[in-house]
Write a structure and sequence with these properties.
This protein is α+β, with helices and mostly antiparallel strands. It has two domains: 4-97, Beta Barrel (Ribosomal Protein L25, Chain P), CATH 2.40.240; 104-183, RNA Polymerase Alpha Subunit, Chain A, domain 2 (Beta Complex), CATH 2.170.120.20. Helix content is 27%, strand content 34%. The chain contains five helices and 13 strands. It has helices at 16-24, 46-51, 53-56, 117-120, 194-234; strands spanning 4-10, 27-34, 37-45, 62-65, 75-83, 90-97, 104-113, 124-127, 131-136, 145-148, 157-159, 170-171, 178-183. The model is unreliable at 212-235 (pLDDT under 50).
Length: 235
C-alpha cells in the first residue's frame, strides 16, 4: 500500500495560548505513543495532514519525517483526530507507533461495485456496513475492499465471510454479519383524486335513489289498502 509521509517535530508541553499560536502557524499539536513507546508530545504539519486527511482518517500508514532522530522514519497510524466544532479544522492528533513486523487491526472502507440484479428488478441497494476491521501487517493494509453486488437479488445479502480479501489479510472480528442487501421495491398506493371521489359518491347516490323510491311506493300502497279495508269495515 502507499505510505503517507508527514513532517513531525518534537515539542514541549505548552500553554493553551502557545498551542493556538502553533495552529495559526499551520502546525498541529499531537501525542505519539505505542506499545513500546512512551507518550511524547510532538507537532506535525497541518498542511500535509489536510492534504492526506482522506487516507489518514482511514488509518493509513504514515511515515514520519523529522530532523529528530527519535522520530524520523517511525511508522504510525492516526488513532484519533480532534476537530474544531465550527470550522472542522484538525486541532489535535493521537499517533500510534506500529511495528512493521507485527500484525495490527485496522478499519478498511468497503467499495460496492456492479449493479445488483435486484436493483434492475426494482429493488433498492442497502449497504449495511461502510467498513470492516481486518488484521494484517502494517505495510499490507488494503486501500479498500471491493464488494461485487452484481449477483444480489431482492432480499439477498453478502456476509463478511464472503468478502474477497487480499492474501495475508483476514477479518478481525465475527464474520457472520451482513454488509449489504437489496430491499424490495416500495409500493405506494396511488391517492384517489377528490373529483373521482365526488363522482363515485354521486354514482352511488344515483344507484340508491330508485331503490328508496320503490320502497316508498310500497309503503304508500300498503297504507292505501289498509285504508280501504278500514272503510269497508265501517259499511
Amino acid at each position: 500500500m502507499e505510505t503517507v509521509e508527514v513532517i513531525c517535530d518534537t515539542r514541549e508541553t505548552r500553554t493553551k495560548g502557545q498551542l493556538r499560536a502553533l495552529r495559526r502557524a499551520g502546525r498541529v499539536p499531537a501525542i505519539l505513543y505505542g506499545a513500546r513507546t512512551q507518550a511524547m508530545p510532538v507537532v506535525i504539519s497541518g498542511t500535509e495532514l489536510k492534504a492526506h486527511s482522506g487516507a489518514i482518517t482511514h488509518q493509513r500508514l504514515i511515515r514520519l519525517r523529522s530532523e529528530a532522530a527519535e522520530l524520523n522514519d517511525k511508522y504510525v497510524i492516526v488513532k484519533e483526530l480532534q476537530r474544531a466544532p465550527l470550522s472542522g479544522a484538525v486541532i489535535h492528533a493521537d499517533l500510534y507507533e506500529v511495528d512493521l513486523k507485527k500484525r495490527i487491526t485496522v478499519a478498511v472502507p468497503l467499495r460496492f461495485t456492479g449493479r445488483a440484479q435486484g436493483v434492475i428488478d426494482g429493488g433498492i441497494l442497502q449497504p449495511l456496513q461502510r467498513e470492516v476491521e481486518v488484521e494484517c501487517l502494517p505495510l499490507e493494509i488494503p486501500e479498500v475492499i471491493e464488494v461485487d453486488v452484481t449477483p444480489l437479488g431482492v432480499h439477498d445479502v453478502i456476509q463478511v465471510s464472503e468478502l474477497k480479501l487480499p492474501e495475508n489479510v483476514k477479518v478481525a472480528s465475527d464474520s457472520d454479519y451482513p454488509v449489504v442487501t437489496v430491499l424490495p421495491p416500495t409500493v405506494v398506493e396511488a391517492p384517489v383524486a377528490p373529483a373521482a371521489e365526488a363522482q363515485a359518491e354521486a354514482e352511488a347516490g344515483a344507484a340508491a335513489a330508485p331503490a328508496e323510491g320503490a320502497a316508498g311506493e310500497g309503503a304508500g300502497g300498503g297504507a292505501a289498502e289498509g285504508g280501504k279495508e278500514a272503510g269497508g269495515g265501517k259499511n
